[in-house]
Specification:
Elements: H1 14-54, H2 62-228, H3 234-320, H4 324-367, H5 375-410, H6 417-467, H7 474-497, H8 500-503, H9 508-520
Region (Disordered): 224-245, 458-480, 497-521
Biased composition (Polar residues): 461-477, 500-509
Keywords: Coiled coil
Length: 521
């Protein structure tokens, strides 16, 4: 038999369509029953027609026919009743099933409503999140666009600055070359003047020599004439001897003066020759300097050409490749390095403050007459502080090594070479400070050892004073003052050797450690 399968209405319409479903099912069952009646009637009519065709009609009575029709009608009625009963049963079963399904659907209705509300809320949340993500993406795109334009402008400005600097260097080299050429020309003119002066001095010296030779020849002539006339002028000779002697003395004086002048002229010529040598040496130096300047200019030209090629390759690389990801990674690395450097400086400041506080506490304990805390606990606390300081110094050194390695990796990028070089310089400046900090820590350890010895001596003296109260105080005060002076001297040396800029970064951490040590004690 055919079964009717009702459609499931929507969960929100189940309560409203329940009666309609029942009525439609009942009407359909009635239509099915009527169809079955028609089928049975048709089948009964076909059987009667067959019986009529098979039975002889000549000798049949109307009463028998009527009884046969009555029997057939009774059978049909019984069959129709059975069919109606079966239809009623099927209808009841279908109605019961439908009612059960409707009740189940009605029971699931609030759950469906709740799920629909949850789904609608989640859909709204997802839509809002998608809108926020779209807004963020738009903002990121705009920021990236602005950032890219900014980087391009910075690169262009740097390239222009580099070109301007190269042009300035070229102009400065040209000016220097022109100035050097002018200086060389002036030196050549001076050399020519000095050579003319030297020639003039040589000519004057030759004139003086010729004059002296003429004077000597005249003297010889006079002597010869005087010898020839000696016989004739014996009387005149006696009178003129004194005059001739006076003249000879004058001539000797003049000859000495001339010799002195010749010596002076020789000295002046020697000075002039020395000046000429110095000028020649200066000219040679200037020539060598000019050659060096020319070589430097050539090297600068080659460097400029290489820089131009590098800038061209960089521009081509930036235009061809997408450098946004690399620049982001580099910026992130730089931010990490800056954060690590700031963290390291903060830690060093904290350690410095804590060391200062510890020094003050140790000085206060040293000035006290009798320490209350036992030496074992103080030694343990100081050992713990030293171990922590050593571990922190090691951590700082490892961080510095990591930062240097990262900077070496960043130096491979050509676009940020200037920033990396500045960071490397800063780190190189920081590394000797860290080394100096290690030396300062060693000195602080020595100072702590001295203070521990001083505390032990004070403790032993306090115990001896407690056991022997009648002992005079003069014997214990003088070495105590001497030790205090030694401690102050050590502190001054440490303060001179450890600048504040190097040890001011390790303050707060040691202060926290000291507070923890005081709490534990």
């Amino acid at each position: 038999m055919l079964r009717w399968k009702p459609r499931r209405p929507a969960p929100s319409r189940c309560a409203a369509l329940c009666d309609w479903c029942r009525l439609s099912a009942f009407h359909r069952l009635q239509e099915r029953a009527n169809e079955l009646r028609v089928v049975w009637i048709e089948s009964a009519g076909a059987r009667n027609s067959r019986l009529r065709s098979t039975t002889p009609t000549n000798g049949m009575k109307p009463e028998g026919v009527h009884s046969a029709l009555i029997n057939v009608e009774e059978r049909l009625n019984t069959q129709i009743a059975r069919v109606q009963q079966q239809g009623d049963r099927m209808r009841d079963v279908a109605m019961s099933r439908m009612e059960a399904k409707v009740t189940a659907v009605e029971a699931l209705q609030p759950k469906f409503d709740r799920r629909m509300a949850e789904v609608s809320g989640s859909v709204k949340g997802l839509s809002d999140e998608m809108q926020s993500q779209l807004r963020r993406m738009d903002q990121i795109d705009s920021k990236l666009w602005d950032w890219r334009h900014q980087i391009e402008e910075e690169l262009r400005s740097r390239v222009l600055e580099a070109e301007q600097s190269v042009q300035q260097l070229g102009s400065a080299q040209r000016v220097a070359k022109a100035a050097a050429e002018d200086a060389v020309k002036k030196l050549n003119m001076r050399m020519l003047r000095i050579e003319g002066l030297v020639e003039e001095h040589h000519s004057h010296a030759e004139d003086t020599n010729t004059g002296l030779a003429e004077l000597h020849a005249r003297l010889e002539d006079l002597e010869e004439s005087h010898g020839a006339r000696h016989a004739q002028h014996d009387e005149a000779f006696s009178t003129h001897t004194e005059k001739t002697r006076a003249r000879e003395a004058e001539w000797l004086v003049q000859q000495a003066s001339m010799e002195q002048r010749l010596a002076e002229m020789e000295l002046s010529t020697q000075g002039v020759s020395q000046k000429i040598d110095s000028l020649l040496q200066e000219s040679n130096d200037l020539r060598s300097r000019l050659e060096i300047q020319e070589e430097k200019a050539r090297s600068l030209r080659t460097l400029q050409d290489t820089k131009d090629e590098q800038f061209r390759t960089l521009i081509d690389k930036v235009e061809r490749e997408n450098m946004d990801g690399r620049l982001r990674a580099l910026q992130q690395r730089l931010q990490d390095l800056e954060n690590s450097g700031v963290h390291a400086t903060e830690q060093m400041q904290i350690m410095q403050h804590s060391l200062d506080r510890q020094e003050q506490d140790v000085q206060h304990l040293a000035r006290m007459p009798s320490p209350r805390l036992p030496h074992s606990e103080e030694g343990r606390e100081k050992d713990l502080v030293q171990v922590k300081l050593q571990s922190r110094v090691g951590q700082l050194e490892s961080q510095m090594n990591q930062a240097l390695e990262q900077l070496e990796a960043l130096q491979s990028e050509q676009s940020l070479a200037q920033h990396v070089s500045t960071l490397v310089k800063h780190l190189k400046e920081i590394s000797p400070k860290v080394i100096g900090q290690g030396n300062d820590l060693l000195q602080l350890r020595q100072k702590v050892e001295v203070l521990e010895r001083f505390a032990e001596e004070n403790k032993s003296k306090a115990q001896s004073q407690a056991t022997e109260p009648q002992e005079p105080k003069v014997q214990t005060e003088t070495p105590k003052e001497v030790r205090i002076m030694e401690i102050e001297r050590v502190e001054e040396e440490v303060a001179l050797k450890s600048p504040v800029a190097q040890t001011a970064q390790t303050a707060q951490t040691d202060e926290i450690d000291l507070a923890e040590a005081q709490r534990s004690s």
